[in-house]
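Project standup — Tuesday

K.O.: blocked on the structure for the chain from last sprint. Re-posting the sequence here as requested.
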Amino acid sequence: MVAFLPVAGAGKVAGARVHPVVVFNACDSFVRRAEAQDRVIGTLLGSVGVDGVVDVRNCYAVPHNEQNDTVYVDVEFHRAMIELHQKVNPSEKIVGWYSTGDGVVPTDALIHEFYSHECQNPVHVTLDVGFNDRAKLMRAWTGSSIAIGAQAKSAADAAGDKAAAAAAIAEKKETAPGEDGDDAAATGPGDDASASAAKPPAAIHFQEINLTNVFDEAERVGVARLCAPSSDASTSDDVSGADGLQKTVAKLSGMLDDAAKHVAAVCDGKAPADAEIGRHLSDALSAVPRLTKEQFEKLFGDSVADVLLTRYLANITKMQLMLAEKLQTTSLLV
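H.V.: unblocked you, prediction finished:
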């Protein structure tokens, strides 16, 4: 017999939205792990929406050690990191934890129990860094407490004893309300039963929930650059700023041509009108500043001058650091 016991807020998580920085941080911590570790775990930071969807925006790795079905978590490191994150971004709260690997393992119940004291309804995100199943590289789970066998029966019996004790107390109060000693003796078994029923659960049942990858505008640009093929000239390190600007302008010009063709087709009745596309085009046009050709050339020239000056100062700083390193190495040899 298996009885499901309710957890605080269980069943209220509708899904999870994970941002790219979470995936990058988790993969980076896995690459930098110790040789003896098979996986890494970490804390997820974000917020919970009114619709029950958890928005995971950031994370950090937490040192841990697993030996003989026992997990040791560096709680002091976890506390220090969350305190630092709260100073930088107070809106990001603990929403769960992540681990690398294909699905859940038995020791995940212990870690999930720890995070259930850190936040309500923690979400567990797993990342398959071994690429065993490309359709399930990242999955999200929620945990619920279960009692198995005799524990479920004892919990039910305890609840029944507590109800019977409450009924006996009510009856005694009607017949002899002044007998306080009998009331105390009657409430004793009920209190013990409730204490035994409140013991930690025997296990954690993980239920998979919907997970979606979301991108902000800035994140989308970075991910697109990382996902670009290696043959793309924009991904090489030796590309100058002028070449990159030329490629960006060419891409923007192509997008403007496509938008103009779509508008012309709608005006000619060759394509159906879409109100959402019209709103996006209106927002894009309203965001463009109204500048004359001379004003644009002056603004562009000032921006290029600032970029060149910044690059010049960066190169000078780099040369100074290299020179200092050479001098320090020479002094050590002497």
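K.O.: great, moving the ticket to review. Residues 293-333 form the longest helix (41 residues). Residues 69 and 107 are 6 Å apart (CA to CA).
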